[in-house]
Amino acid sequence: MAELTFTKLNPESHLLLDQPLLRLPVELSRKNFKLAAVHVEHDKKHLLGALKVTANDSLSGKKTPSETLGSLDSMINRMKNLKRKMEGFHDEEKTTHRQARQRLEHLHSLYQVPSLADAKYDEWSRIRLNRLLADYLLRNGYSESARALAKEKGIEDLVDLDVFVQCHKVEESLRRGSIQECLAWCSENRELTRKTNNSLEFELRLQQFIELRRKGLLPEAQQHARKFISSTAEQRNPEVQRAAGLLAYSPGTKAEPYRSMYSKTRWDFLANLFLKTHHELFSLPARPLLHLALSAGLSALKTPSCHSIYASSSSNASSTTTTVCPICSTELNELARSLRHVQHNKSSVEQDPIVLPNGRVYGRGRLLEMSAKVGLEEGRVKDPTTSEIFDISQVRKVFIS
Questions:
Q1: pLDDT tens track for 221-270
Q2: Is 69 strand, coil or helix?
Q3: CB of 163 within 8 A of CB of 189?
């Protein structure tokens, strides 16, 4: 029964890490619908107005039949352009639905796995690992490697390739000192970011103002400020006041906060702000999913003794044991050092446990057998971890309550 409990699969706990897998298609579908609605509403307003004017002018004789036909042709062309846009939105919607379907099937397959010992669980876990690796590569700018991995493993619909590729292009443009790509992204997603009171577009306009001031173009800087910055004074009065003060300070100033505003490090600030805005907009975690999975796994395995000087034979030359703890291994020990260990509600102990004077607990039979193997005289025992030697009379029996 204990073995069955240990190997029983709990899909709900496994899927906690996979929430972004379903959230992103929903957010993309919502964005696609809102953009389509904006285009329809804009063209509808224009076409109804143009149709009304054309009809009135035709009835009143202000326009000749040929001019009326020309206006109707213009409206038909506009409607054809709208149709092409709607077809593009429809194609994107079909792609999003296909990805959502594939992801649902992938997650649902976990509910068909009876236990952790089943071969199907190993297969599902490998697919998840490949997804996490592709996500990590995409977040770090290795788009082609991520695409090749996704294609080789057949998980293109389970990986957000296009979203992260576009995100990385905008991020890199900001780090190079270019604003236009990010402004275009803000314009495209303005309907989605407006409700969140996000400061990204304001910071981009402020950076344009800073660059104009850096070049000494004061009239252009003032005009830009009146158009894009002054209008936000009610919501961002402190930032607007600092921007106004920048007109009185040259790029070489040592006075703060103007020195920081002129600093080239603001481009990194803008890039990080864009990433934060982008991930919040599409419900993506700020950290790579691989980091989250590693943190959870390492914390689950970590114990208070993992970073002790007696943790393994590698850290204690006189130790007679070899650790099988993955956290105590050379590869993971430093990686897990800053992580907290979890509280385990269940623990296992050896048969007939005894405690040595140094507080370490071992099974009596195994300890006596190991002490005899290293050549100790009868009545003496050796701690296999610290190599301390004690008299058997100092050993106390442990009673588990």
A1: 889 988 888 888 778 888 888 888 888 888 888 888 889 999 999 999 99
A2: helix
A3: no
Residue type, 100: A
- Please answer whether residues 312 and 319 qualify as being in contact, where contact means their C-beta atoms are separated by less than 8 angstroms: yes
Residue 136, pLDDT score: 92
Neighbours of 287 (CB within 10 A): 11
What is the crossing angle of helices 143-153 and 161-175, to 10°?
A: 170
| Gyration radius of the chain's alpha carbons | 33
Distance CA 394, CA 389 (A): 10
Of the candidates 369, 31, 51, which has an alpha carbon nearest to the alpha carbon of residue 194? Answer: 31
Alpha helix segments (H runs only) across 61-108: 65-108
Q: Is the pLDDT of residue 1 over 80?
A: no
162-198 pLDDT per residue, tens: 899 999 999 999 999 999 999 999 988 887 777 777 8
HSE at residue 399, side-chain half, CA atoms within 13 A, is: 1
User: pTM value?
Assistant: 0.73
| Helical segments of 109-217, H only | 119-139, 143-153, 161-175, 180-188, 190-193, 200-214
C-alpha distances (whole Å) from 35 to each of 128, 164, 180, 296, 379 are: 32, 20, 20, 38, 82
